[in-house]
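User: Predict the structure for this protein chain, please.
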Amino acid sequence: QVQLVESGGGLVQAGGSLRVSCAVSTRTFSLYAMGWFRQAPGKEREFVAAINQSGGVRYYADAAKGRFTISRDNAKNTVYLQMNSLKPEDTAVYYCAAERGQYRLQDPGVYDFWGQGTQVTVSS
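Assistant: Here is the predicted structure, written as structure tokens:
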């Protein structure tokens, strides 16, 4: 069973930066594409960013483009989401997810494994 543990969330002022991490417990991390999703209170879970197995292909939601960067370190079994120029509307629980395929990475339904989430709160 693959386990994902997010960390790095917290409270930050608008305009600030935060990096969240997701550590994945598996010997085959490099076989998994990884995604970040978020869910704000009263809203559906939404796609933020995704990265393919090698790290060479990345996808971003429009809300994340130019501000967020997804990356991965296959030697450390970890995926990161660097968030800059944060806005109050970025406030949400951020989840990482893993899946063996490489298509439709914006679709939460394709992911096999999920972390429990980390809270990111951006104050105005």
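The first strand starts at residue 3 and ends at 7.
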